[in-house]
Amino acid sequence: GTDDHSSDLFWESRINMIHFVLLVSRQGKVRLTKWYSPYTQKERSKVIRELSGVILNRGPKLCNFIEWRGYKVVYKRYASLYFCMCIDEADNELEVLEIIHHYVEILDRYFGSVCELDLIFNFHKAYYILDELLIAGELQESSKKTVARIISAQDQLVEAAKEEASSISNIIAQATK
Amino acid sequence: MASSNSLMDSLFQRSLEDLIKGLRLGESTFISKSLEEIRREIKLTDLSTKSVALQKLSYLAALHGVDMTWAAFHAVEVVSSSRFAHKRIGYHAIAQSFSDQTPVLLLITNQLRKDLNSSNEYEVSLALECLARIGTDDLARDLTSEVFTLLGSSKALVRKKAIGVVLRVFDKYPDAVKVCFKRLVENLESSDPQLLSAVVGVFCELTAKDPRSYLPLAPEFYKILVDSRNNWVLIKVLKIFAKLASIEPRLAKKVADPVCEHMRKQNVGKSLLFECIRTVFSSLSDQEVPLKLAVVKIREFLMDDDPNLKYLGLHALSIVAPKHLWAVLENKEAVVKAMSDEDPNVKREALHLLMAMVNEDNVTEISRILMNYALKSDPLFCNEIIGSILVACSRDSYEIIVDFDWYLSLLSEMARVPNCQRGKEIEHQLIDIGTRVKDARLELVRVSRALLIDPALLGNQYLHPILSAAAWASGEYVEFSKAPYEIAEALLQPRTCLLPHSIRAIYIHSAFKVLVFSLGVYFSAQEPTSSSLVQESTSSGSSAVNGFTCDSISSLVSMIELGLCSLSGTIDVEVQERAKNILGFIGIIKHEIAEKATSQDSETEVHRAIAFMEDVFSEELGPVSSTAQEKVPLPEGLELNENLEGLQEICREVLEPMAESDYSSDKVSFSVAKLRIRDQEEASSSSSPPLESSSLLAEHRKRHGLYYLSSQKSDDHKDRDGNDNNTSNEYPPANEISVDSFKSKKKLSKPRPVVVKLDEGDEPKTKPDASSSNDERLSRAIQTALMGKGKGKEKERVKENHEINLDTENIEQSSRREKKKKKNGERSSKRSSRRQKDKEASVTKPVEVPDLLL
User: Fold this and answer.
1) With a threshold of 0.80, does the pTM exceed it?
2) Any idea which fold A7-142 has?
3) Which of B40, B117, B177, B730 could join B781 in a cystine, given CB atoms 3.0 to 4.6 angstroms apart?
4) Which residues are A76's β-sheet partners?
5) What pLDDT, in 10s, does the model give residues A120-130?
6) Which sequence spans correspond to the domains of chain A?
7) How far is CA B44 from CA B5, B134, B363, in A?
8) Which locations, inside or outside the cell, does it occupy (chain B) (predicted)?
9) Which residue of A75, A94, A176 is the best one to mutate when testing the B interface, meaning the one whose CB has the most B CBs within 10 A?
């Protein structure tokens, strides 16, 4: 049944390890999605619906992997959030669990004991951090310190620009140019 | 006016935080209202307002599934801003929403180039991330030289991301290999763990696709395998070696030692340990030491309380099971225990392993265990269990089944599992065994009777296919029945109205067979000198059928008549026609039955009619090769593909699980055979002989008697197949099991004919074919780039693509590689002198191996 559709959803040949990352709250609210392969918006919604249905209903003492359409989804719950990553059959599930944990630790360090609300209001920051961790679905950075340093450098870059740009007079000057 | 409007929009624009707060209050109208605002704001010239609008849109698209493809052009505008904050929002939006079909894609080439050349490493990194995600063939081609430059960047952040991008660039534009590959390889020797991690990741993916091209890099990978202390890097290198070792067995021997060393380490990470185990199971399983060590380690996984380890342990066992079943058998208890785990994934893995262990000695025991689990399990898993048993037992023409009586009773037991939904498969096997295994028919009829007379089963629609098979078997093999009256009664019981019409038609037709058979027995028993013979036969027990008295046959006839008269008015024509056929037949013979006792004339109308009907049903049905149909040559001038092609899609599903009945037009013209053919079609099992060819058949049997069932009337399909091929060797080995006596030793057929395997092999082929052109170009390019490194085979291959190779850069590159190789050689020979084993291995190896490994 559902297997027939998998080929529509995924491109023919694999070029990266992680196909997508999902963060879903216990109530089924999506908190972050990152796709490393081309899905249409419709396919994305379908994947989210399908997976959150399965994952949220799994009991706490079960293993952290599910087989799904010929792929594996590795997930782990941290407080009220489920972190999920989709990988190929042959990939290392335990390694992905470690990557997830790594991501959570970096978030934790950045926000200072991260909670769901941090991610709700700073969803873009969560993305930027993820981008320092994975590129094209491949692991990029293994040092927490470096990620923290890069992100704060970028933040400073943004802040500096903001100060000069956000004064009302500046906006007026721009608009009436 | 316009400018003051836009001023207001800019001043009072909702920020992302406002949007999020608003969404948390109440969603439905708020999203559409915000979208309206965003559409307005995003068109303003002020880039700050525009970028905030884009960011809000990205948010809504990512988390609320809002379409943002319409904003593609605005994302390009935002990216062109000189401010980092804007750029970041723009690139994020592009990575999130662009696809190969996005029309404005070409507009960003120059912007990407500009940012890739930026002096700000964070801007470069944004552009690289974006390229890694959306790079098309054109973008990859146009930006290859920038990527090449960045691969040599002194900034680790940039270089690392450039390495990540290479994967996409190579995939889209294989010629980039000529430019970038050398620098990529150089990074394999990087001392920076981040760079190493990135580059090993890239090679892991590249090798997975096309291992052969990367064999020349084995020495570099080996060095990392030995030296690296980073688990994630080691996991990737192990994956690379798993691929390489499967095509170069000598490599397996070489890496066995370092892999064992990693496994033996005291506090090795579980992820690395698991990767070692999996590598050993999949690619090094011919090496005794690592295999034994891995089996020891896997037991630790199985015994662990962590459900993840338990699951992975079982999963790893299933990798090794086909080659080293002993590893599974050693852990049999753990596997059986896992069947009652609360995690469905664990249970499923355990089930697969149990099925891998099944053989003809333990099939009874394992099936019994599994049936117990099936009764206790939820519907989903229950049917998975039943399905697995069905598949395992029917494999290669029931190869592992010795006692078919037992297997048939198991099938009927499955039918009675409350959650069973595998009716179709069970139906198929019941009929299949009936046609293939003569000596199982007695038991088949017994089992079928039990199924038919149970009115409770009629209410479960999942069991209808099974009942259909039981009905067919009871009619077809009625001579094995002890009580035909009971069968006929069961076939016509009122609750059969719960059945679908098609199955009900089979019920009625089977009742017809029972009737004809009973009448035949009755009249033939009456014939010579009557009752004494009947008594003799019953008392001797050689015939399973009780004799019929005048009374019993009359009551059978009137019971059938009564059961059918209500059906002669059914809406469904199939049911109606069959009912009327029987009623018509009863009309002919009914009045004769009573007179029969007195009349001695054997040439009455009734005799002829019954004898004729007996003839109709007497032909034995045999199994048909699933490829039989394909062996029939296409008559000239027959255009099958033209009009019916569309049907193929629709029919495939229906036809595949069953043997195709071969059913050709010449038979249809045969009016008496018609009924039968229809019946076979429903039973989907077999075909009847074209009577014209009976002389041909006899001749063929003489020549190829070996391939015929012992039965007198045998399978015509073989005749046809045989005639087509003409040489008996080419004829696929008989599909059927010829069991002379199922109690004694089995005499199993050879493995399934090659043709059947072809059938199965067809499907997986379609996928890999689809996208290979770029892949081929890529592996050619890689092999060219590594020309200096690989000798022998690799070089030969590359020579074929001469014209691509000979640009100057490559020659230069390969000569440098030669030098480097020497250096490597010196270094690693030092290492191997430290290691006695390595040294020995390298001494005994043929010339080519040091070339690969030292």
Assistant:
1) no
2) Beta-Lactamase (3.30.450)
3) B177
4) A83
5) 888 888 999 99
6) 7-142
7) 10, 26, 74
8) Golgi apparatus
9) A94
